[in-house]
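Recap slide: C4-dicarboxylate transport protein, sequence and predicted structure.
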Amino acid sequence: MQLDTSAQPTPHADRPFYRHLYFQVLCAIVAGALIGHFFPQTGEALKPLGDAFIKLVKMIIAPVIFLTIVTGLAGMGTLKGVGSVVGKAFAYFFTFSTLALIVGLIVANVVHPGSGMNIDPATLDASKVSGYAEKAHETSLIGFVMDIIPTTLVSAFVEGNILQVLFVAILFGISLILIGDKAKPVVNLFETLSHAVFRVVDILMKAAPIGAFGAFAFTIGKYGIASVVNLAALVGTFYLTSALFIIVILGAVCMYNGFSIFRLISYLKAELLLVLGTSSSESALPSLMEKMEKAGCKRSVVGLVVPTGYSFNLDGTNIYMTLAALFIAQATNTDLSLQQQVLLLLVAMLSSKGAAGVTGAGFITLAATLSVVPTVPVAGMALILGVDRFMSECRSITNFIGNAVATIVVSKWEGALDREKLDAALSGNSHGNVRPVSDLEPAPAGLRLGEASAD
């Protein structure tokens, strides 16, 4: 049957610019910054807008991950494929997470952002960071591993713990593989549910500009631009280092695998602006999973790599940890030998996994690292507390881009990447972004209802 194309809606590319999500979020960020700067009390009072939007997104993350992984694994048909994806994903995560730590260490030694501050550690107010230090102490590697196992099968969804949901989803998906053809009715049901869940994601994303506006107004209103100026060397060094890591290192990985980091960033521009506005990469997790599948990555790979990467592939957080630790050492005139810096890096490799998924993970992992390397005063974290929120945005963006690259690369390694879809998506010609599904005929089983337009 042929469709009457004359009656179909205007393609996404022909929409007025003001209807694109990325433009709306950008305007919201600018408006929030102006409100926060000129009316700081009003800006602080707008915090609930950002908090409410992030809560809305977190509400839908668990079902998105569960349904994507279960239907993806069921589609694999064999357990061999599951082990292959997980093995390759963790090999990628370990390599580039370690490389990010080394980059932060090298840049701190070359630039010396904390030199000349001459801060006496005895004059620092350690009480300001005591709460983070306590959380870091409580978050051991063994405790982290044990926490992956939920109390009950449904408690993972109630608590919203990403790794617990991932654990339950993998078990459930494997069980469907073992059941075989008899599991088809369940798989079909989950396919239908995934359509509904991604439609909810599409609805929630329409509130993204409001959430970005409130979150950014609060950040500027509470901390002010002046707090950034006072520690401009650290903030500037961190942003520049993260940019170089994305463009040079991840860019080289992208080029080697046959796509452009700049086209990928352009493809994800709406999500990146949302992450910038909310300082949370979780706010764009559902949309990232949806867009990676549109870009030709197999659903099973997306379902395994993206949620796992949110806990184990934190490039931005790792750059921040070694860079901030050496900044504190330099600012307090604490000399660190090469051996001590290597110890710092090794501890950071473990602590970055131990606090994965914890709210404020960047600051907590830094506290955990410094507590194990007592040469650097933990109280020195008070120096960067005021600008941590601004660095959190860069951490989140770097983590987000790193996970997008990881998903495409692992998909290619697995032979689970549709190059035509990838090229079309990155060139802006993806039909997945053309028009809302609700305006067309009923969607076929393989179509994601979230395709209505994240951007």
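The longest helix spans residues 79-111.
The radius of gyration is 22 Å.
(End of recap.)
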